[in-house]
Amino acid sequence: MSVDAPLRTAPAHAARPAAARRRRPLRGLWAKVLIALLVVVEVYPLVWMFLTSVKSNSDYLNHSTWSLPTHWEWGNYAEAWTTGHIGLYVRNSLLAVVPSLALVLLIGAAAGFALQIMVWKGRSLTLLVFLAGVMVPSQLILLPLFTVYFRTGLSGTLWPLVLTYTGTGLPLTVFMMATYYKTVPRELFEAAAIDGAGILRAFWTISLPMVRNAILTVGLVQFFFIWNDLLVALTFTNSQDLRTVQVGLLNFTGDFGATRYGPLFAAICLNVFGTLAVYLFLNQKVMKGLTGGAVKG
Amino acid sequence: MHRVLGDRRAVAILLGPALLVYTLVMLVPIGWSLGYSFTKGNSITGFSWAGFSNFQRLADDPAVHDALWFTVKYAVVVTAGQVAAGYALALLYTFYLKRASALVRTLVFFPVVLPTVAVGLLFQKFFQVAPQTGPVNSLLELVGLHSVDWFGSAGGSFWVLVLMDVWRSMGFYAVLLFAGLVDIPEEVLESARLDGASGLRLIRHIVLPLSFPVLMSSAIFSINGTLKVFDSIVALTNGGPGSGTTPLTLYMFQTSFTYGDYGYGSTIAVLLTVLCLLVTLVVFRVSRRDLTKG
Questions:
Q1: So what's the pLDDT on residue B200?
Q2: What was the pLDDT predicted at A18?
Q3: DSSP assignment string, B112-181
Q4: Is A168 in Cβ contact with B25 (below 8 Å)?
Q5: Residue B272: its chain A contacts at CB < 8 A?
Q6: Do residue A136 and residue B273 have CB atoms under 8 angstroms apart?
């Protein structure tokens, strides 16, 4: 139905005989029902999640799942944040995400510049070596990294996360930055160099401002990858004090013995609405960035 | 003229840090893992040489066979679901909503950015039967059916998992495929319509063949992601009931960290990598052949 309806309502058919036109409202209705259903399927789980997050335990267990909260238990959020340690986990996540993101963008952009703008032998091979990293499952690098972090005494800090996120984020970042630098003419940097700015300065003061949109896009993509990561965080956080939001949320039920539903849902809400806020402000960029990375990867 | 852009010192300064981190965090560990697959032990107890025994064990281990089968089954079903749902949405955007599609596109895309762990827990509660009847089971009871204990069986868990991952990423594939559909020249569609093709026939004979390349790249991307599935499963079922929904990634993780067997864990990781490479190669070959024929 969804496939059928749109075509027949296309403007090319507007001049059809009356019989066809009379059937059109019905088709339009079907499509509208479909879209309404789509909206419900996308939005209702989140509405339900939010409503449940402000219910008390007895409210959750004794009333129908459709019902509104009998009274709004905002304390669930405070409980999740403090007793549930979500505050600590958010801090840990930020401490891991911000440095990794800054590092991966800076050295990724520099590498993209070196691989795309600069002219030297072996640069396409080097780009290919970076690109191959997109294919490798993280499972293949976890165990040696664990050994190294353990031997060097980095375990017990957030450094393993920062280093691993930077390394695993590089393939896509380098490739996307190199692609964006294709649109910048080389001559610009030659001219700048003749005017007395070294190539390093040209990279910093001329090229970076020119690709700042690209950096924002790649940054968003990497932000979601790193913030939402579970595998790496689960592997390298060996104590509760180091847990990131995702690892903390996974163990949330355990800490409360699976009985405190309100705070659990409040914790899920905090996690979901955080990323949703970023998306609401920058959705066009996020969509372009994430799908752009896919076509090339 | 290219003298400035060929400055080797500058190349080293710009590329050096990225290449160094990439080499240390990815390239060296890849080789190292290959080495581990010939050993026994872990980083705390130390390693001893094991020859090919891990590979022998891999071939005979029924848990590996189950995990491999589950991984492939999951990847095929979810890839088909994601690409099909994405394509249906993309057709809806292109031919029905047209310029008004931006809002719906943005809305359907948003689950892509949500943390998988949060979505997993949400679906777990959404489909639960006890201690409180979740919305899905309530709905079933409302229309006169019985509640289903979705997570009590491997089959039920599997379908919830599939549903969740399609829900999570259909908006992503819709946008990807929408970009491909918009590229089809309006004149081609117009002339096909003048020749009398409409509705499903127009889709089958004109739109589908023209969007075949972007469908293929979506499928390659999807299968590459679904073969590596980890977060969704850990959050939703943690591999259960029993080991009914355990893919290779999770089995590798359990072998390495729950049982402390790094050698065998690495061997499973190698198997997973080979699987990813093989599948990508096969899909590439198939898509190339079809393109030259069509």
A1: 79
A2: 42
A3: GGS-HHHHHHHHHHHT--SSS--HHHHHHHHTTPPP--GGGSHHHHHHHHHHHHHHHHHHHHHHHHHHHH
A4: yes
A5: 137, 139-140
A6: yes
In this predicted model, what pLDDT tens digit does every residue of A233-278 receive, in sequence order? 999 988 888 999 999 988 886 555 556 788 888 999 999 988 888 8
- Tell me which chain B residues have a C-beta less than 8 angstroms from the C-beta of A111: 14-15, 17-19
Residue B212, domain member (yes or no):
yes
Residue A111 has its nearest CB partner, among B15, B117, B172, at B15
Calculate mean pLDDT across residues A110-114.
94
Among B1, B4, B37, B108, the residue to mutate for chain A (most A Cβ within 10 A): B4
Q: Are B204 and B256 in contact (CB under 8 A)?
A: no
Region A81-296: CATH code: 1.10.3720.10
With an 8 Å Cβ cutoff, are B21 and A166 in contact?
Answer: yes
> What does pLDDT average to over chain A?
83
The pLDDT tens digits for A142-200 are 999 999 998 898 888 999 999 999 999 999 999 999 989 988 888 888 787 777 778 88
Give me the number of domains chain B comprises: 1
Interface mutation target, options B104, B121, B211, B272, chain A, most CBs of A under 10 Å: B121
Indicate whether B207 belongs to any domain: yes
Judge: B224–A144 Cβ closer than 8 Å, yes or no: no
On chain B, the residues whose CB falls within 8 A of the CB of A184 are none
* CB atoms B92 and A6 under 8 Å: yes
Distance (Å) from the alpha carbon of B45 to chain A's nearest alpha carbon: 11
Q: Which of A115, A230, A286 is opposite residue B116, by nearest beta carbon? A: A230
ipTM over 0.90: no
pLDDT confidence of residue A256? 54
Q: State the pLDDT at residue B294.
A: 38
- Can you give the CATH number for the domain in which B192 is found? 1.10.3720.10
